[in-house]
Amino acid sequence: MTLAQAHRTPPDPAGPAAPPGPPGPAPRPYRARSVPGRIRLVTAVSVLALTVLFGTLFTAAQSVREGLDVIGHDAGPQVVATADLYFALSDMDAQVANVLLIGDEHRLGKGRARALEIYERRRSDAGRAVLQASALAGDDPSERRTVQAVLDGLGRYERLAARALLLDEQAGHPAGPPPAPVLEVYRRATDLMRLELLPMAYNLTLESGTVVRRAHAERSLSVRAGQALTGAAGAAAVGCLVWLQVFLARRFRRVFNPALLVATAIAGMYALTGVTVLGNEARVLEAAKRDGFDSVLTLARARAVGSSMHGDQSRWLLDPERADTYEQTYLDKAQSVLYTPAGHLAAYQKAVAGKADDGPSAFLGLVGQAAARTDLPGSGPAVADVLDRYRDFQQADRRMRELGPRRAVEQRMTRLEAEFERYDAALVKLAELHRASFAGEIRGGEEQIRELWFLLPVAMASTAVLIAAGVRPRLSEYR
C-alpha cells in the first residue's frame, strides 16, 4: 500500500452533500402589522370607544330616570305628605279648642257642628299621612319607631279629645272658657299634641326629607360624571373613526368612505346630544329639588305652623291661666313664618304692618324662603297676596287681644276666622304654583331622557352597521 493510499480520506458514510436548493419562503410578518390586521385593530379600538360612549349614556340616562322618579313620583310626594301630617294634627287640636270655646252658642262662626266636621276630616288626613310615612320609612328602624310612636300618641290624643268633647257637651256652657273638668282634660290632650306629637311629626318630615336629599345628591353627582365621561368617550370615538377614515383613504387611494363618514357624524351628534341632555337633566334635578320640592315642602310647613298659630288664638281665650304661655308660643311660631326682630307680640305685629309692602326680601322665615323665587310665572302677585293676607291676619289678632273676653270670642270665631282662611287660601295658591313648577320640571326632564333613551338603540345599531359596511369591502380585497 502506497503512502498516498494510506492517507486517503475515508468516504463519508452519509454520502456526498446535496447541492443547496432554492431559498424557502420568508417568515410571515406579524398579523397586526399587515394591512388587514391594522384595519381590524383600528376598527376594534373605534368599536370599543363607541361601546364606552353608549354604555356611559345608558348608565347616566338610567341614573337620571331613577332620580326623577324618586324626587317626582316616589319619595318627594310622600315627604310632602308627611308635612301634611303636621298640618292635620295641629288643625285637629285647633278644632277641638274651637268646639270647647264655642260651647253651646252655635251662632258663632261656623258653629260647633262645623268644627267637629273639620276635626273628623283632619283625623282622616292624619291617618293617610301616617300610612304614607310608614311606606316611606321602609326598613329604617329609626323612622319606623317614630311612625309607631306617632300612631300610639295619636290614639291617646283622640281618647283625651273625645272625653273633653263629651264633658263639654254635657256641661252646656256659653261661649268662653269651659268648666274646670273639661279644661283639665283638654290641657292633657293639647300638651300631648304640642309637646310630643307635633315635634315627632316635624322630625319625621326632616328624616323623610333626607331620602330626597340623598337621592338628589347621588343622582346629580352621577349625571355630572356621566356628562364628563360622555364627552370624553364621544371625543375618543370620533377620533378613532376619523383615524380609521384617514388610514383607509391613504391606503386605498380613496378620498373618503361614505359609510364611515356617516357613522362618524352619528357618533359626534349623539355624543353632543348626550352631553347637552345630561347637562339639562342636571339642571332639571337641581330645579326640581330646590325650586319645586324644597319650596312646596317649606310652604306646607308654613301652612301647618299657621294652623297651629290659629289654634293658639283659641287656646289663649280658652285657658286664661295659660294665656301668657300661648301668646308667647304664638309669637315664636309667627316669627318662624315671617321673621322680624321684636321683643313682644305687639311690636312684632307693628313691624309686620310696616314691612309687608316691602316684599319677601324684608323677611326671613318659611314664607320668605319659599317666596324668594320671584321668576316663577305668577309668583309675584301670589307672594304679594300672601304677605297682604298675613298682615291682615296679624292685625285682626291684635284687635282681638284688645277686646274684652266676650267680644274677643266673637272676634276670634268671625272676623279673625275669615282673615285666617284668606291667608291660608293665599298660601295654598302660592304652593300650587310651586307644585305646578315642580311637576313641569319633572315632566320636561322625563320627556328629554325618554327621547334620548329611545334613540340610543337606534344609534348603536346604525353605527355598527355603517362601520361594518365601510370596513368589510376593504378587508375582502385581501382574500
Average of pLDDT: 80
Based on CA atoms alone, the radius of gyration comes out at: 39 Å
Secondary-structure content class: mainly alpha
Number of strands: 0
Sheet bearing the most strands, described?
none
SSE order, one letter for each helix or strand: HHHHHHHHHHHH
How many DSSP helices?
12
* Silhouette: elongated
DSSP strand content = under 5%
Contiguous low-pLDDT stretches (5 residues minimum) are: 1-7, 28-32
How much helix is in the residues? over 70%
Whole-number count of domains: 1
The separation of the N and C termini measures 70 Å
Provide a short characterization of the protein structure:
The protein is mainly α and 479 residues long.
Report on this structure:
It is built from 12 helices and no strands. The protein has one domain. 81% of the residues lie in helices and 0% in strands. Helix 5 (180-251) packs antiparallel against helix 6, helix 6 (258-318) runs antiparallel to helix 12 and helix 8 (345-355) packs antiparallel against helix 10. With 479 residues, it is mainly α. It has helices at 3-6, 35-102, 111-137, 141-171, 180-251, 258-318, 323-337, 345-355, 366-370, 379-402, 405-413, 415-476. Mean pLDDT is 80; it is low at 1-7 and 28-32.
List keywords for this structure.
elongated, 479 residues, mainly alpha
